[in-house]
Amino acid sequence: MIIFALIFQETVFEFFSHLVCYFSQLTGLPTVVKIVEVGPRDGLQNEQEMVPTDVKVEFINKLADSGLKNIEVTSFVSPKWVPQVAAGAEEVAIFGAASESFAKKNINCSVDESFERFRKVTEAAKKENVLVRGYVSCVLGCPYEGDVKPEKVAEICKKLEDMGCYEISLGDTIGVGTPGAMKQLLTEVSRLVPLSKIAVHCHDTYGQALANILAALQMGVTVFDSSAAGLGGCPYAKGASGNVSTEDVVYLMNGLAIQTGVDLHKVIEAGHYISSAIGKKSGSKVGAAMGVKCAL
Ligand SMILES: [Zn+2]
């Protein structure tokens, strides 16, 4: 009987371990991801109303309390005041574009000229031991040029990596990307820069953000930018959705048993707080579905 029990136990164990193995092969997904909260910077700077500092501070405190460890709070970094910023900051960001027209209209220079400016920023940051995060806008489409070549994005990522960026965030600024385009883009980028250094920054303008994030997860990306309550509209389409909401991303990851370190209920509470403070409906579907009661 004892022998039988042992065999039985072993069979059960094998059965479950095969099941677990099968499951992870099926998903092939990472077990831990990093979420970069961009609400206080990217989100609020795109809101029409000016947000009082005390509200902003309370919002940031609530985000931190939910477990978010990477919260972007600074505005656009101008090379002129980088040395001062660098002295007090742990991290600075540089913003590149994959399209000439976008660079001209937004930073008033060509893509190549923008790299000359970045060099000054990265050199100042290096001296102060400050990390530099690179952003590339319009990676899946440009409001002026339409399609953007994945090879062009890959080249820019490589330049940013060579300049010393520890992480490069690929922004679908106008939210037009779909999962096939995301996979194609990441395939090209991975030829020049390892995907361990790549983050994706999806906007939900066309309702594709979570699908694109899942596609990126399947490709091996483990860093995702998002904004509580989906703050931040699309500057090129009035009234359109902004960044993918942090609540929705955390819900997705929880469902896939992927750790984020973020308490879903607390981040929902932060989203509700800022939405009511600026008098705007939350852009988070999960926030709306779960309501504010669950935060109590
Ligand atoms: Zn954004």
From TrEMBL:
<dbReference type="GO" id="GO:0004419">
    <property type="term" value="F:hydroxymethylglutaryl-CoA lyase activity"/>
</dbReference>
<dbReference type="GO" id="GO:0046872">
    <property type="term" value="F:metal ion binding"/>
</dbReference>
<dbReference type="GO" id="GO:0046951">
    <property type="term" value="P:ketone body biosynthetic process"/>
</dbReference>
<comment type="similarity">
    <text>Belongs to the HMG-CoA lyase family.</text>
</comment>
<keyword id="KW-0479">Metal-binding</keyword>
<dbReference type="Pfam" id="PF00682">
    <property type="entry name" value="HMGL-like"/>
</dbReference>
<dbReference type="InterPro" id="IPR043594">
    <property type="entry name" value="HMGL"/>
</dbReference>
<protein>
    <recommendedName>
        <fullName>hydroxymethylglutaryl-CoA lyase</fullName>
        <ecNumber>4.1.3.4</ecNumber>
    </recommendedName>
</protein>
<comment type="pathway">
    <text>Metabolic intermediate metabolism; (S)-3-hydroxy-3-methylglutaryl-CoA degradation; acetoacetate from (S)-3-hydroxy-3-methylglutaryl-CoA: step 1/1.</text>
</comment>
<feature type="domain" description="Pyruvate carboxyltransferase">
    <location>
        <begin position="33"/>
        <end position="268"/>
    </location>
</feature>
<dbReference type="InterPro" id="IPR000891">
    <property type="entry name" value="PYR_CT"/>
</dbReference>
<dbReference type="InterPro" id="IPR013785">
    <property type="entry name" value="Aldolase_TIM"/>
</dbReference>
<keyword id="KW-0456">Lyase</keyword>
<dbReference type="GO" id="GO:0006552">
    <property type="term" value="P:L-leucine catabolic process"/>
</dbReference>
